[in-house]
Amino acid sequence: MPRLFYGNFDFEEQLHATPGQRRPAAMERLVQELTFGFLGVSTAEDRIWCPASLPATYLDQLEASGWPHDHFVSHPSQLPSGLTLEPWGWSNAAIRFGEQWGLQMKPPPLDLVRYANSREFSARCESADPLHPSRLCRSTDEVQAFLRSRQADSRWVIKANWSHAARERILGNGPDLDPAAEAWLRQRLSRDGMVCAEFWLERVTEFGVQWQIDGPAATSAPKLVAITELLVDPRGQYMGTRFLNLADPIAAAVIPAANATLPVVRELAQRGYRGPVGIDVMRYRVDGQEQVRPFQDINARWTMGRLAAGWFARHLAMATSDAPLPTAMAWLHGSESRVRELAPGARWIPTSPERLDNRPVGHRTWLMIE
Question: What is the C-alpha separation between 22 and 188, in angstroms, rounded?
Answer without folding.
Answer: 19
